[in-house]
Amino acid sequence: MKTEITERIKSPTPKFFKRIRTIGLTLGAVGGALLTAPITLPATVVTLAGYLATAGIVASAISTVAKEDNS
C-alpha cells in the first residue's frame, strides 16, 4: 500500500491536474495570507479565508496523486 502511494506521487501528473494543483496552491496561499494578516478582519472574512486555505490544500493534495491511465 505504501509503495503504491509513493509510485503515484512519483508518476507523471496529467496537465489538467497540474492546473488544479496550481489553483489549489494559490487558494491556499491567499487563505493563509488572510488568516495571518496583521490587521483585524471581520469574522466573515476570517471564516472565508479558512475555507479557502482548506479547499486549496485538499485540491493540491488530491491533484498531486492523480496519474495518467496508460491502459
List the keywords.
71 residues, mainly alpha, 3 helices, elongated
Summarize the topology:
Layout: H1 2-10, H2 15-35, H3 43-64
Helix pairs in contact: 2-3
Give an account of the 3D structure.
- By secondary structure, the protein is an all-alpha fold.
- Helix content is 73%, strand content 0%.
- It is built from 3 helices and no strands.
- The radius of gyration is 16 Å and the shape is elongated.
- The two termini are 21 Å apart.
H/E series, N to C?
A: HHH
The tally of beta strands, per DSSP, is 0
Cα(first) to Cα(last) distance is 21 Å
Number of helices: 3
Could you give a short account of the major beta sheet?
none
Overall, the morphology is: elongated
Helical content (DSSP H or I, runs of 4+): over 70%
Proportion of residues in extended strands? under 5%
Arithmetic mean of pLDDT: 88
What integer value in Å does the Rg equal?
16 Å
Uncertain stretches of 5 or more adjacent residues: none
Structural class: mainly alpha
Quick summary:
This protein has 71 residues and is mainly alpha-helical. It is built from three helices and no strands.
